């Protein structure tokens, strides 16, 4: 653990070299390793300030990383087409006469009356 601690400390020094403390972007792998090292040390009673000093990090950065919750994973979903709205009763009936006359939208009673009138 001490070798990993020293490696992270030197890596933190390289990342902060010549930069303002607020201008440092630590890689995700670095943050994950730092949090993994800090959690057991904090559990044994070591202060966050002390752990941050050992890692060569600002206390606020380490505290923020420790407070972050893991990002929620996306759940698989099934995308289905919306069902077609039901057609009004009789609206799907279309009458096309041999002469090319097209009649739509009548209910069954109206269609029967029209067919009788056309005979």
General description of the model:
This protein is mainly α. The longest helix has 16 residues, at 28-43. The chain contains five helices and two strands; from the N terminus they run ααααββα. Strands 1-2 form a two-stranded antiparallel sheet. The model has no long low-confidence stretch (mean pLDDT 84). 50% of the residues lie in helices and 5% in strands.
Distance between the termini: 98 Å
What order do the helices and strands follow?
HHHHEEH
Q: Which strands sit side by side, in order, in the main sheet?
A: 1-2
Number of strands: 2
Which outline best applies? rod-shaped
Percent helix: 40-55%
Average of the residue pLDDT scores = 84
Q: Which structural class matches the secondary elements?
A: mainly alpha
Q: Total helix count?
A: 5
Task: Supply the key terms.
single chain, 2 strands, 5 helices, 119 residues, 5% strand, two-stranded antiparallel sheet, mainly alpha
